[in-house]
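Subject: Interface between my chains keeps coming out wrong

I've been trying for a while to get a sensible model of this assembly. When I model each chain on its own everything looks fine, but I need the whole thing in one frame so I can look at the contacts. Pasting all components below, labels as-is. Any help appreciated, I'm running out of ideas.
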Amino acid sequence: MNPLDSIAGTIVSGFILAIILAYVVKAIAGA
Amino acid sequence: MEIMMIDRWLHIIAGVLWIGLLYYFNFVQAPAQAAALADKDGPGPAAIGKYIAPRALLWFRWAALATWVTGAYYLEAAPQYSLVGAFSLGIGAHNVALSSIGMGAWLGTIMLFNVWVLIWPNQKKILGIVEATDEEKGKAKRIAFLASRSNTLMSIPVLLFMQAGGHGMPF
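Reply #2:
Try treating it as a single job with all components included. I did that and got this:
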């Protein structure tokens, strides 16, 4: 099942991606 | 007059227009078209495709380009950033604001690509602006839908990283 097929799945995936990428950004910046 | 700050202002206006229309497509128009198609006694979705979607797509795609151009100018003009530094994700700079705005810039660039390369050419087939067979229209619908949903997904981290550069990260 593709999460993009539902609005809820899209939004939840967006927040998960945001959290993952925030830690990637912090790791890159050494923060 | 500070051109850089006017540019930043225009960047936010264009971004609101772009993402506002993106949310309209995903949260309002697509479900409305599906409901209109399923409603056998209703007027059908033809008017949405003929009168609303082309106008919404016009503002949508040009707002996307305006957002990117004003954003790129700001990255180069603002003393705390640089275009190359941002698109290098601030690697080696030890600067959270630069890495953050860079991540947002990359996501925004992918979203601009989706608008002009995946959504708009396929919407032209769906709306009958260019010739397409029913099979081609079916494929175009799926590609445009997934690209639009992907942009909705990416808009969530983009908005985090765009404001985090100046205001910090919540975690």
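Reply #3:
Confirming on my end. Residues 3 and 19 of chain A are 17 Å apart (CA to CA).
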